[in-house]
Design a protein that fits this description.
The chain is an alpha/beta fold. The protein is built from 12 helices and 17 strands. It has a 7-stranded mixed beta sheet. A 5-stranded mixed beta sheet has the order 3-2-1-4-5, sandwiched between helices. Strands 8-7-6-9-10 form a 5-stranded mixed beta sheet. About 4% of the residues have low confidence.
Length: 396
């Protein structure tokens, strides 16, 4: 089968044509011009060079996101236009999976990182494992031949997401396996890698560290065999996070208030989903009833986003809990919620705040340090499941 593939999700623009397991042509460039100037001329050049009859193409594979908002729109619009004109399906390939496929067959974990700005990366964690020859496929010949020919399956360990580099580094440290990085985030976060990673790591070489439409086509063939196709009308890019204007608008309507008994079931559920040793609903109910405790929640349009609490002892505040809903992370809500807690504590006469955090929780440590907390020691084996030391932080 013939697949025409497009990738304009990052700084690189790439177009490729494959037929079965053969790469017929690929045109990739990363040099100053915008994708609106390059993508269609690149496609036309390939069409002319290989005398391609577009009617013979079976499907359009496209890097579906995340990535540059503008780049994704250009790639998506081009794929949709071709699909409509040719009456062919679209194979949406997640951008991070396409990047990870550059390292097909690697024995290490593969972690693609794209610079998402605002101190974040688009990332995920993947591995290649021997394919299961006994797995069931669709009954058509393309699906069967694809399953037989591919020696490795790419497995998703962590779904693509937009997080701080420290957060993905924490996940890699927890997995404890060697990792290879690929993507345009490498030069941006190279120094941070040296500081926070505790596992062996390597960096993909130049010919494998950027987007490639050939990889989108190759992985697209696998997904086509699995039935992961949509029509041109159905395809939409996967931006993964809101645009800056949308984030600012959403951030503006977040409010902070005292926790009530009605909030406790949701907050305790968040604890269960987030921590290995969560607080129970009864523990929260007991704490919010205490005279010397203050617990707060973040809320947007009636939806709870997280909670935190402080126990007040002799003019000092022991911050006992901070938990944020997955969909509300990396938006500054946790930071703002803690700032609200400390402003209220200051009004009640608190002059210092303390808390404990796992030594491996780099993302949380970064937030606390940004708020002015300073490490004052270690409590050995403070945590269980797994056993780990705690850093003691103070803000005076």
């Amino acid at each position: 089968m013939k697949i025409l593939a497009l990738d304009s999700s990052g700084l690189t623009a790439s177009v490729a044509l494959t037929e079965d397991d053969n790469l017929i042509a690929e045109y990739t460039i990363q040099y100053k011009k915008t994708h609106s100037q390059t993508l269609l001329p690149m496609l036309e050049e390939i069409r002319n060079m290989v005398e391609l009859d577009l009617a013979t193409v079976d499907a359009i594979a496209v890097a579906a996101g995340p990535g540059s908002f503008t780049g994704l729109r250009i790639g998506s619009a081009t794929a949709k236009g071709l699909a409509f004109a040719m009456e062919k399906p679209v194979i949406p390939v997640p951008t991070l999976e396409g990047l990870a496929y550059q390292m097909y067959g690697s024995s290490d974990l593969v972690c693609p990182i794209m610079d998402a700005r605002r101190s974040q990366v688009y990332t995920g964690i993947y591995e290649f494992a021997p394919g299961d020859r006994e797995k069931e496929c669709a009954q058509d010949s393309v699906a069967q031949s694809t399953a037989d020919e591919y020696e490795y399956d790419m497995r998703v360990i962590k779904e693509q997401c937009a997080v701080s580099f420290d957060e993905i580094a924490e996940s890699l440290n927890h997995l404890g396996r060697p990792v290879v990085f690929v993507g345009d985030g490498i030069p941006v976060f190279r120094e941070r890698m040296r500081e926070v990673l505790r596992v062996p790591y390597t960096l993909a070489p130049a010919h494998r560290n950027r987007q490639s439409a050939a990889c989108i086509a190759a992985l697209g063939r696998v997904y086509y065999a699995q039935g992961r196709i949509v029509s041109g009308a159905e395809h939409v890019p996967e931006y993964l996070r809101l645009s800056q204007a949308e984030r600012e608008r959403a951030q503006a309507v977040v409010t902070y208030r005292r926790m009530t008994p009605g909030d406790v079931p949701y907050i305790s559920k968040l604890e269960e989903q987030t921590f290995s040793m969560p607080w129970s609903a009864d523990s929260f109910l007991e704490m919010i009833s205490k005279e010397d405790a203050r617990y707060y929640v973040a809320e947007r349009d009636g939806q709870l986003l997280g909670g935190c609490g402080v126990l007040m002892i002799a003019g000092e505040g022991n911050i006992t809990n901070v938990v944020i809903a997955p969909e509300a992370r990396n938006q500054g809500i946790g930071t703002a919620m803690l700032q609200h807690l400390m402003r209220e504590g200051d009004r009640e006469g608190l002059t210092a705040y303390t808390l404990e955090v796992r030594v491996s929780n780099a993302a949380a440590i970064h937030v606390y340090e940004k708020l002015g907390f300073v490490s004052a020691g270690i409590r050995p084996n403070f945590y269980e499941k797994p056993a780990e030391d705690a850093l003691i932080f103070w803000k005076r």
